[in-house]
Design a protein that fits this description.
single chain, rod-shaped, mainly alpha, 74 residues, 2 helices
Amino acid sequence: MTLQQEGQRSGRRAVRAARVLMAAGAVGILGGCVNVSAPDKPIVIELNINIRQEVVYRLDAQAAKTIEENKDIF
């Protein structure tokens, strides 16, 4: 191996080492950025909901006739 080839190889090692160090530094710096904590104030959710309910009923013809005939019992 010539001296020039050895110089290129050590240069590549240095670049690779620098990249690894930069990646490790970035992980170290960004590792402390995420912070999860409960809020001081309660969470308020305002819901404006309009609920409309319709009740539909049907009487059997015989039941309706019985009610008509015996109005005093109801």
